[in-house]
């Protein structure tokens, strides 16, 4: 006998938790589709030489390789042939480069699949997790207007997920780099300063200031102060965001370009009718070092800042330079749903949902079995999700089962109902019970389900 | 520069093929849910000692193992710690045993995920493919009525997939083994005979007959004839199925038990209103050797018998004996959707679908941009999937783009429409074009989409 258990670092859910998770996945997918994004799925494994062309040391150490028994036996010194994807961005780059001539650009795709990272085992850290990505990829160029469509999608997703108030925050790498230029911080030092400012949340202002004026960086105290003041800029509301950008004044050409891009994005969001309390500028956002080149996004839950960003991304200049000579600029975001779901559950915001089953068709006596089957089939044709009780049981037991399983309605036909051509329907959510004509049963149920949704 | 390419043995689709595939997946999932099955997902990898407890040599040779870089470096002589699932049945057994005390029995789950097998590379053979499984698992016992619910689900799935006429065929292992008993074939020899009869489709009757009477088996010619005659039994229609089962006469207790079980299943299917041309008995079906113990199912497309079974399964006595002392009998089926999709595409039955985007909101002049954004958002609120054209282009180019992308409707507001509070809508499927008041646009589109669905 082997003890049944999952490997460490994976999230496996009981059915009702899985239903709650699935509803979130479905909402994200429907919203992505409502903005015209097309579905893409890629294989879980890529050829190692294709997948690892772009990654540095840290990522590569986290990659899982896959080998069949035969390959294990023949294994030489090189890397195994197959590696599991560790994000959806490298597979997207490979996909777009491989199918370039079959795709229409701008190419708008969503991809919702699991990715794999050999993280150190730790609470809330997962080795297998869902990413829900959208990207718009241009050929040669991509209109900056797409920069504003992305936060409109984020907005729609989190409104529909209804997990609390949220703020989509953005910054612009050109604004940042232009600001550095203006302070005389150039080249490699920009990356180092950026990396340091990215630690503000974790280390706090004092520690970061000390590092900036310390031996390694050697910045003047006044320069450090200006960097920190810049990083403190956050807006509240649409007009405040515009005012704060205006208050930055003029800078280098790059600086002005970044600022004007943010202004255009803000205006477009307003034209799309996005609630203005849902977006803000936050000039402390940097998002890593070398990938993003334009706007960058982070999204936080207002009541749970400690969860950190729940949806991040930005604009990049060239998606697939390792695979094609074509220039493919893009903009996109990713939601790490497994970790988010885990955090929301820890915070008590999501939990077990109602069952995905709408109706339990009960069975009171064996003579009613064929009848219960026909009733079940009839309700299915009407679009309901129906479980049929296959064995006659006491009525109290059947209600108890439905209640524990989170099934809202029970439908029953005893001898009386069968003789009278009726069915007894019970709504376990409020105890309402009715005996109605057979051909109105589906309507009775549909009306109550609709009420709940509204 | 690395050549972008996928590993051999995977199926990667272009967006419009992916949309067609996704529709099939969604149909299967919705149908599974309409019969009250609950969703389960398991991690792609299991601990090797947990996954491989049950498998024989052939399967184990096909298993993929996963290792992070760190694990590769430390690798000893034993098997790697993690292995990718090669089906959804072993993970189900592990899941039910692990979560036994948190599940309600009979436990009805569906699971739609990819599985991995190191198959020899070959056209139409996949190393990564979707399985779409349902199972009902009982604790200690499982009512035989579930045996008939499974083909009702299969029936609903393939009616809705609308890929042509199909026949769900079944046999019963007790009938088979009881028939062998009656011929004096006992114990291990039953398995050998079963394996031989399973080759009838591939080898033909003459070759199988020769083997049965040959040295290894040494069956009497008359016994071989009776085995072959039994295997030839197939029914057409409900009454014919009952008549053919009755014509088998009486046999051993096991034989009679199997026959009566098939009769009960047939009667239940009739009570559920399943079209009788869609199911039949076929006494040649054996489905492997040691797993199934009761009813077994196969489903074929009437016009494409060469595709073989597109949905198979059956009843088993004990799901998880390697993981728990509890007795967990069950019944279930699996659809291998990746291979099925590939075959349907080869046969020209499925192909590229219409886009998942319903409407392209075009842009005729830059002054109309904010207006196009607002129109897009309004249509989204009405439940439509909308792509917004971000750059003003010639009208012919925009129609051409929508047409090539498979987007059915284009919505446009030029200067005239903006002044008049109207919008011009075009249905590319028939050329119909109308200029309507802004607040009726969504209704105009919805009416035409509904028409198409009906």
TrEMBL record, chains A, B:
<dbReference type="InterPro" id="IPR036621">
    <property type="entry name" value="Anticodon-bd_dom_sf"/>
</dbReference>
<feature type="domain" description="Aminoacyl-transfer RNA synthetases class-II family profile">
    <location>
        <begin position="22"/>
        <end position="340"/>
    </location>
</feature>
<feature type="binding site">
    <location>
        <position position="131"/>
    </location>
    <ligand>
        <name>L-histidine</name>
    </ligand>
</feature>
<dbReference type="Pfam" id="PF13393">
    <property type="entry name" value="tRNA-synt_His"/>
</dbReference>
<dbReference type="GO" id="GO:0006427">
    <property type="term" value="P:histidyl-tRNA aminoacylation"/>
</dbReference>
<dbReference type="InterPro" id="IPR006195">
    <property type="entry name" value="aa-tRNA-synth_II"/>
</dbReference>
<dbReference type="GO" id="GO:0004821">
    <property type="term" value="F:histidine-tRNA ligase activity"/>
</dbReference>
<dbReference type="InterPro" id="IPR004516">
    <property type="entry name" value="HisRS/HisZ"/>
</dbReference>
<keyword id="KW-0547">Nucleotide-binding</keyword>
<dbReference type="InterPro" id="IPR041715">
    <property type="entry name" value="HisRS-like_core"/>
</dbReference>
<dbReference type="Pfam" id="PF03129">
    <property type="entry name" value="HGTP_anticodon"/>
</dbReference>
<keyword id="KW-0436">Ligase</keyword>
<feature type="binding site">
    <location>
        <begin position="291"/>
        <end position="292"/>
    </location>
    <ligand>
        <name>L-histidine</name>
    </ligand>
</feature>
<protein>
    <recommendedName>
        <fullName>Histidine--tRNA ligase</fullName>
        <ecNumber>6.1.1.21</ecNumber>
    </recommendedName>
</protein>
<keyword id="KW-0963">Cytoplasm</keyword>
<dbReference type="InterPro" id="IPR015807">
    <property type="entry name" value="His-tRNA-ligase"/>
</dbReference>
<comment type="subunit">
    <text>Homodimer.</text>
</comment>
<dbReference type="InterPro" id="IPR033656">
    <property type="entry name" value="HisRS_anticodon"/>
</dbReference>
<dbReference type="GO" id="GO:0005737">
    <property type="term" value="C:cytoplasm"/>
</dbReference>
<keyword id="KW-0067">ATP-binding</keyword>
<dbReference type="GO" id="GO:0005524">
    <property type="term" value="F:ATP binding"/>
</dbReference>
<feature type="binding site">
    <location>
        <begin position="87"/>
        <end position="89"/>
    </location>
    <ligand>
        <name>L-histidine</name>
    </ligand>
</feature>
<feature type="binding site">
    <location>
        <position position="135"/>
    </location>
    <ligand>
        <name>L-histidine</name>
    </ligand>
</feature>
<comment type="similarity">
    <text>Belongs to the class-II aminoacyl-tRNA synthetase family.</text>
</comment>
<dbReference type="InterPro" id="IPR004154">
    <property type="entry name" value="Anticodon-bd"/>
</dbReference>
<dbReference type="InterPro" id="IPR045864">
    <property type="entry name" value="aa-tRNA-synth_II/BPL/LPL"/>
</dbReference>
<feature type="binding site">
    <location>
        <position position="287"/>
    </location>
    <ligand>
        <name>L-histidine</name>
    </ligand>
</feature>
<keyword id="KW-0648">Protein biosynthesis</keyword>
<keyword id="KW-0030">Aminoacyl-tRNA synthetase</keyword>
<feature type="binding site">
    <location>
        <position position="117"/>
    </location>
    <ligand>
        <name>L-histidine</name>
    </ligand>
</feature>
């Amino acid at each position: 006998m082997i003890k049944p258990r999952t490997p460490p670092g994976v999230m496996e859910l009981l059915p009702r938790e899985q239903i709650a998770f699935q509803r979130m996945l479905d909402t994200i997918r429907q919203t992505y589709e409502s903005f015209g994004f097309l579905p893409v799925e890629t294989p879980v494994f890529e050829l190692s030489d294709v997948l690892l062309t772009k990654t540095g040391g840290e990522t590569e150490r986290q990659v899982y390789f896959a080998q069949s028994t035969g390959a294990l036996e023949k294994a030489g010194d090189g890397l195994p042939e197959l590696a599991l994807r560790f994000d959806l961005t490298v597979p997207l780059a490979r996909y777009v480069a491989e199918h370039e001539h079959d795709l229409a650009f701008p190419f708008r795709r969503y991809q919702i699949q699991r990715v794999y990272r050999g993280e150190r085992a730790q609470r809330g850290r997962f080795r297998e997790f869902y990413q829900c990505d959208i990207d718009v990829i241009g050929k040669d160029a991509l209109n900056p207007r797409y920069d504003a469509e992305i936060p409109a999608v984020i907005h729609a997703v989190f409104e529909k997920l209804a997990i609390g108030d949220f703020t989509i925050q953005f910054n612009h790498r050109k604004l940042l780099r232009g600001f550095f230029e203006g302070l005389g911080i150039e080249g490699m030092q920009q990356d180092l300063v950026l990396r340091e400012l990215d630690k503000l949340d974790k280390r706090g202002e004092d520690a970061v200031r000390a590092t900036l004026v310390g031996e390694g960086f050697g910045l003047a105290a006044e320069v450090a102060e200006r960097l920190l003041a810049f990083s403190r800029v956050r807006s509240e509301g649409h007009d405040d965001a515009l005012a704060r950008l205006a208050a930055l004044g003029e800078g280098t050409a790059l600086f002005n370009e970044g600022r004007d891009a943010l202004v255009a994005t803000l205006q477009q969001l307003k034209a799309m009718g996005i609630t203005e309390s849902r977006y803000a500028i936050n000039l402390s956002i940097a998002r890593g070092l070398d990938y993003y080149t334009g706007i960058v996004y982070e999204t936080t839950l207002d009541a749970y800042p400690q969860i950190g960003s729940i949806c991040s991304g930005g604009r990049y200049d060239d998606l697939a330079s390792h695979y094609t000579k074509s220039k493919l600029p893009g903009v996109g975001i990713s939601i790490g749903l497994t970790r988010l779901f885990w955090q929301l559950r820890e915070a008590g915001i999501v939990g077990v949902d109602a069952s995905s089953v709408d109706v339990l068709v009960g069975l009171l006596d064996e003579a009613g079995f064929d009848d219960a089957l026909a009733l079940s089939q009839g309700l299915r044709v009407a679009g309901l999700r129906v479980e049929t009780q296959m064995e006659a049981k006491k009525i109290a037991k059947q209600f108890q089962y439905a209640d524990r399983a989170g099934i809202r309605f029970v439908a029953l036909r005893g001898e009386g109902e069968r003789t009278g051509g009726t069915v007894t329907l019970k709504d376990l959510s409020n105890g309402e019970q009715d005996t109605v004509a057979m051909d109105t049963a589906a309507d009775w149920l549909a009306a109550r389900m609709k009420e709940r949704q509204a």
